[in-house]
Amino acid sequence: MHFIAPAWLWLLVLVAALLVAYVLLQLRRTKYVARFSNLELLGSVAPRRPGWRRHLTFALLLAGLTVLTVGVAQPTAAVRVPRDRATVMLAVDVSLSMQATDVLPSRIDAAKAAGKKFVGLLPSRINLGLVAFGGNASVLVSPTVDRAPVEAAIKGLKLQESTAIGEAIFTSLQAITVFGQATTAKGDKPPPARIVLLSDGTNTVGRPVSAAVDAAKKAGVQVSTIAFGTDNGTVTYQGDTIPVPADKQALQQIADDTGGTFHTAASVQELEQVYQNIGQQIGYTTKQRDVSWRYMAVGLLVLLAAAGTSMLWSGRLV
């Protein structure tokens, strides 16, 4: 916890002094009664004082003053708040291996269904673009807050031969750069950006992934990857059955190297959950906010409780 005005915390010394004075007063009163009173006579004629009740009232008073003092010092706490703006490029693998049916009805159809849900759950203030990659990579939709063209482009995804993961990252970075230059005022920083890359295979054509990762790091863009499919996926190509397991290790390395997050999904339900988690990460950020009102409210309630117990048990406030 941090404080905007920590100097006010010195008032806690006064609260501690009140506690010490109260304890000394109670000890002194006990000794005085024991020395100068006939305890048997006093017990028969004097009403009992609300001993523990009196102490509880004072304890509530001290607690209330303590909490109020902390509130005056203006404590801050980490709070999740919506991002004002951000850019996300969704890169979807459309290589032939995505026709595998280990994820029903097929990997590509499941990816389309989950991708549409991702478009819907991403906060409306976030700019979203779409890149499809197979033997090459192309921007189907430049970053925009309009979700309709992204949904339409996802619906129309077509399969291609080969897998160009490196090109997908380079193409996404180019789209982010162009969008940032076009929408950022001179002297301002471009909006934060993230690439969300879904694939089930290994880079087979185009520029190497290592070069793309270096470019992403230089641009300060994290790449979150999703390994989609199971280890048992197969496709039939020219009469041959070819195993197409998801390359989890390669995709995790991309995420680790760029500071992004790595996820696995072996079903459409898991993919939807991954997209939801990523959407929450992208759509919100953590900031320190003044939460003194919480302490002021609690402190006031505790002081009211102290006043109430005093009135209830002794008929007075002190």
TrEMBL record:
<feature type="domain" description="VWFA">
    <location>
        <begin position="87"/>
        <end position="278"/>
    </location>
</feature>
<dbReference type="InterPro" id="IPR050768">
    <property type="entry name" value="UPF0353/GerABKA_families"/>
</dbReference>
<keyword id="KW-0812">Transmembrane</keyword>
<feature type="transmembrane region" description="Helical">
    <location>
        <begin position="293"/>
        <end position="313"/>
    </location>
</feature>
<keyword id="KW-1003">Cell membrane</keyword>
<dbReference type="InterPro" id="IPR024163">
    <property type="entry name" value="Aerotolerance_reg_N"/>
</dbReference>
<feature type="transmembrane region" description="Helical">
    <location>
        <begin position="6"/>
        <end position="25"/>
    </location>
</feature>
<protein>
    <submittedName>
        <fullName>VWA domain-containing protein</fullName>
    </submittedName>
</protein>
<dbReference type="Pfam" id="PF07584">
    <property type="entry name" value="BatA"/>
</dbReference>
<dbReference type="InterPro" id="IPR036465">
    <property type="entry name" value="vWFA_dom_sf"/>
</dbReference>
<dbReference type="InterPro" id="IPR002035">
    <property type="entry name" value="VWF_A"/>
</dbReference>
<keyword id="KW-1133">Transmembrane helix</keyword>
<keyword id="KW-0472">Membrane</keyword>
<dbReference type="Pfam" id="PF13519">
    <property type="entry name" value="VWA_2"/>
</dbReference>
